[in-house]
């Protein structure tokens, strides 16, 4: 039985891991810093000017961005998995991230960049794109109220391809000079954005995660199938609507600022399920922390692996995620769970 | 005794997509009764369970539980009184027996996010009744069909229902496990005055355990009565379109239905 204490302990555990990985990430990079220099800067003590600029101006906002994005994408993954009753679902696999990306591209070309208001606007259009894509996947894949794995994955692929094509169309119609930032963004990157967008993203992710977590107990029951959930007193339709919107919100606000970063919502929940079980009341907070930690780690790797150049973090997550997806798909079919 | 029966179904019509339909279905189930619904394939048996649990709403007619129309009960309130053992358990994520049993506490935990010690005690009690207490920490996908069935029964009992609905409770079970389930249902019925409605293909199971049977065909009630009244050769042959023979069980005196199998060179 999951208790409040376990949920607190689990969350505390991943918080420690996140702090440790983040501390390491603050010291690593083109300009190597010692941990004591980093600590001095963070505590506002006297430190070399270079250290202060690198830590506060470059690395810290980037780490915060990675942590929030990792948590948001992971919770979106858990939510979509619960909604579709399928552990292979995730914002990228379902094409929802592509929908969000399409919305964000439109927003960026419309000039939504820079100010705080623009950061909100960009999040909003990406959210709208995610909602449209999620609705499309749902309508394409549903067979008599059920979402079989094969049609769900195909619907996700189709929706993803459609929105990718729509993005390509827009890009080819637009003046090359206006595209620089967008092309970089489209590869999925956590390049320096500053604190403002991180704040907007954190707010959106907090709202989305809160909404998902509030339904955690109902989501456990939904895993038994909609009919059983209804018979156990769950207002399944309402729960599904909340999750649908919240997961799209999480996907939208994250993708709006980081571009599409795949597989985080797939790998992390599965790994955490192996460790703490499937109960969403424990899974969601622990997976959120683990997702944050994973993306900070992956982004640090992306920064230092091919120094002085830098990899888009999406490359790292995809290299981890694709083999993992194959493994999941194979074991799932072998066990006949599909 | 209250004058109202525990369950009253009155003039219920229901249909979707034209395939499965119920028409003008009426019956009553008394408190502490064991009631069986039998009938050929697609006669509407499972649809009936969905109507009794508000998964579907009737298009006409009314269903009352303890005198209150189902439409006036919240899902939670209904789930505190009516529990279902479905034909099959489908799992999206791995789950242990104890986790499954605790899910039966959901209707009693309005506004509570975590289960309390009371919930755990009830879940364990239900697991003990269903004989799966020592399997508590086992993942469900490692269990045999009989154990799984009893784990689902434990979840239903953890709801502390007045009415237990079972959909084909023995269909995947071998003889010993069928016998165990029947023993358990009888015990729950006798010791706890639990009202049981079971839906089954198995005419002999229904005839053996039920106080009264309802024969459903093409979505209509054909007959309601004791096993002797319903399990009658002529009636079954007409409804099932199959020659049968009915004899008395030497053990219980209840009717036993046997198919008249075609001879080797007949019926090709």
Share of helix of chain A, binned: over 70%
Text of the CATH class of chain A: Mainly Alpha
Tell me the Rg of chain B in angstroms: 19 Å
Distance between the termini of chain B: 56 Å
CATH architecture grouping of chain A: Orthogonal Bundle
The chain-level structural class of chain A is: mainly alpha
Strand tally of chain A, please? 0
CATH class of the domain at 1-81 and 162-174 and 194-268 in chain B: Alpha Beta
The main sheet of chain B orders its strands as 6-7-8-3-9-10
The number of E-state strands of chain B comes to 12
Radius of gyration of chain A: 20 Å
In N-to-C order, the SSE pattern of chain B is EEEHEEHEHHHEHEHEEHHEE
Rounded to the nearest angstrom, the distance between the terminal CA atoms of chain A is: 27 Å
- Low-pLDDT stretches of chain B: none
Give a written overview of the molecule.
- Chain A is mostly helical and 338 residues long.
- Chain A has a single domain, classed as ABC transporter involved in vitamin B12 uptake, BtuC (Orthogonal Bundle).
- The radius of gyration of chain A is 20 Å and the shape is globular.
- Helices cover 76% and strands 0% of the residues of chain A.
- Chain B has a domain at 1-81 and 162-174 and 194-268: Rossmann fold, CATH 3.40.50.
- Chain B has helices at 45-52, 75-79, 97-103, 117-130, 145-158, 175-192, 203-209, 227-230, 233-240; strands spanning 7-16, 20-29, 34-38, 60-65, 68-69, 82-85, 163-167, 195-199, 212-217, 220-225, 244-248, 255-259.
- In chain B, 39% of the residues are buried.
- The chains are: A mainly alpha (338), B alpha/beta (268).
- The A-B interface holds A 1-4, 7, 81-82, 85-87, 216-217, 220-221, 223-225, 227-228, 230-235, 273, 277-279, 281, 335, 337 and B 50, 53-55, 74-80, 82-84, 86, 89-96, 98-99, 102-104, 106-107, 109, 113-115, 119-120, 141, 159.
């Amino acid at each position: 039985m999951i208790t409040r204490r376990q949920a607190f302990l689990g969350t505390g555990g991943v918080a420690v891991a996140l702090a440790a990985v983040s501390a390491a990430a603050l010291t690593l990079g083109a300009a190597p810093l010692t941990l004591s220099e980093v600590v001095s800067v963070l505590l506002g003590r006297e430190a070399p000017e270079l250290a202060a600029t690198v830590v506060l101006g470059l690395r810290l906002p980037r780490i915060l961005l990675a942590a929030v994005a990792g948590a948001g994408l992971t919770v979106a993954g858990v939510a979509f998995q619960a909604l579709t009753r399928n552990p292979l679902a995730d914002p990228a696999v379902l094409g929802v991230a592509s929908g969000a990306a399409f919305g964000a591209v439109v927003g960026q070309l419309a000039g939504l960049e820079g100010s705080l208001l623009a950061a909100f606007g960009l999040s909003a259009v990406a959210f709208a794109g995610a909602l449209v894509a999620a609705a499309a996947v749902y309508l394409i894949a549903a067979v008599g109220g059920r979402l079989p794995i094969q049609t769900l994955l195909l619907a996700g692929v189709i929706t993803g391809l459609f929105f990718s094509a729509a993005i390509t169309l827009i890009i080819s119609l637009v003046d090359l000079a206006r595209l620089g930032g967008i092309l970089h963004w489209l590869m999925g990157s956590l390049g320096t954005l500053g604190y403002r967008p991180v704040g907007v993203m954190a707010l959106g992710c907090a709202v989305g995660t809160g909404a998902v977590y509030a339904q955690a107990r109902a989501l456990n029951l939904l895993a038994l199938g909609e009919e059983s959930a209804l018979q156990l007193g769950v207002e399944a339709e309402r729960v599904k609507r909340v999750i649908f919107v919240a997961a799209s919100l999480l996907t939208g606000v994250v993708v709006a600022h980081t571009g599409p970063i795949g597989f985080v919502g797939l790998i992390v929940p599965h790994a955490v399920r192996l460790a703490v079980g499937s109960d969403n009341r424990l899974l969601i907070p622990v997976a959120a922390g683990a997702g944050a930690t994973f993306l900070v780690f992956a982004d640090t790797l992306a920064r230092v692996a091919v120094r002085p150049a830098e990899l888009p973090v999406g490359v790292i997550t995809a290299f981890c995620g694709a083999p993992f997806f194959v493994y999941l798909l194979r074991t799932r079919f072998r066990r006949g769970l599909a | 005794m209250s004058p109202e029966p525990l369950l009253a179904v009155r003039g219920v019509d229901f249909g979707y997509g034209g395939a499965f339909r119920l028409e003008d279905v009426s019956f009553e189930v008394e408190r502490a009764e064991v009631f069986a619904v039998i009938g050929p394939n697609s006669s509407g048996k499972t649809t009936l369970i969905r109507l009794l649990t508000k998964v579907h709403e009737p298009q006409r007619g009314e269903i009352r539980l303890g005198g209150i129309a189902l439409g006036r009960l919240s899902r939670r309130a209904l789930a505190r009184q009516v529990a279902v053992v479905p034909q099959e358990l489908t799992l999206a994520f791995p789950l242990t027996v104890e986790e499954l049993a605790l899910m039966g506490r959901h209707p009693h935990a309005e506004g509570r996010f975590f289960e309390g010690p009371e919930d755990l005690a009830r879940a364990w009690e239900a697991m003990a009744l269903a004989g799966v207490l020592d399997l508590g920490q086992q993942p469900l996908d490692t269990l045999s069909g009989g154990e799984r069935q009893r784990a689902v029964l434990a979840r239903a009992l953890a709801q502390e229902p007045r009415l237990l609905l079972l959909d084909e409770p023995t269909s995947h079970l071998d003889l010993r496990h069928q016998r165990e389930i029947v023993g358990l249902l009888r015990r729950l019925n006798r010791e706890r005055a639990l009202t049981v409605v079971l839906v089954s293909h198995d005419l002999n199971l229904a005839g053996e355990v039920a106080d009264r049977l309802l024969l459903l065909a093409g979505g209509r009630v054909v007959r309601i009565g004791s096993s002797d009244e319903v399990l009658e050769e002529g009636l079954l042959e007409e409804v099932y379109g199959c020659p049968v023979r009915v004899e008395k069980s030497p053990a219980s005196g209840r009717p036993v239905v046997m198919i008249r199998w075609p001879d080797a060179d007949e019926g090709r």
